[in-house]
Amino acid sequence: MKLLLCLSIFFISSLPSSYSCNSKDKNTLLQIKKHFNNTEFLSSWDPQTDCCTSWTGIECTNGRVTLFSMANYRTLYGQIPDQIGDLLELRTLEMSHMKLTGNIPRTITKLKHLVFIFLLWNKLSGPIPDYISELKSVTFLDISFNKFTGPIPGWLTQMPKLQTFQADNNSLTGPVPNSFGSFVGSVPNLFLKNNKLSGKIPESLSKMDFQAVVLKGNGFTGDGSMFFGGNKRTVQVDLSRNLFEFDLSKIKFGKSLAMLDLSHNRIFGTLPRELTQLHLERFNISYNRLCGKIPRGGQLQTFKSYEFAENRCLCGSPLKKAC
What we know:
Layout: H1 2-14, H2 23-35, H3 51-54, E1 58-61, E2 64-71, E3 77-79, E4 92-96, E5 99-101, E6 116-118, E7 125-127, E8 140-142, E9 147-150, E10 164-166, E11 171-174, E12 189-191, E13 196-200, E14 212-214, E15 219-222, E16 236-238, E17 243-244, E18 259-261, E19 268-269, E20 282-284, E21 289-293, E22 313-315
Parallel strand pairs: 2-4, 3-5, 4-6, 6-8, 7-9, 8-10, 9-11, 10-12, 11-13, 12-14, 13-15, 14-16, 15-17, 16-18, 18-20, 19-21, 21-22
Antiparallel strand pairs: 1-2
């Protein structure tokens, strides 16, 4: 009986795993390796081994490649290979901190299960392709620190599962689209700092409840008050280094607001007392046109004086100027 049991265990263990690397996925990965001239960074991609168990940057589910991660290969040049679209079960695509050029290939639209896209810190350029909108399962899209140009895509509002869009440090131009006043899914976090964006924020955005909106380092003008509201669940607002001009004393803040940076604008008025009721972690209102006494209480007096400095006539702690 023991002999039969041992033989059975041996037989089962010697069978090929039902979850070994899918042959089509494996061939696709080998084509991608060839695309990058068989770089030494991918030396573990040995055709004699299982791509799901020993290949760097690859993870599988039930034998299909679901994660493709190439990051910090700073000497790796070239474009995103078209073959990336043949990894049909891919959930996570990461090609970051490289020197990729060109644009995102259209073949990416074949990846209907794609959830996370990380293409930050490359040299990708051109307009953000409108066919990205075909990826209806994407929740996180990060193309920060590239050379993308053109407008913010209005079609982002048609991506039903999008939760975060990050395009910091590119060369995007123009205004925030009017379509951002209505999203088919949840309202995503927007990170658009250090671009070349300009114009006024559409009033329709006042209906949106952004958890995070970062517009730092652009050329936006006019009113920025639509990002605030007493009933909103916003956690982070960074409008710093723009040309916003509105009356801060009329703003109502949601209780969840924890990070607020309005520095280097043309904002006027006084500081609302309700700021003392917030659990602020970051706060900066320097280089504006604010006046009046800084309310005492909450976290306000825990911030440095330079975070209140260079206003028209602010006074009181933590500033040394008495009222």
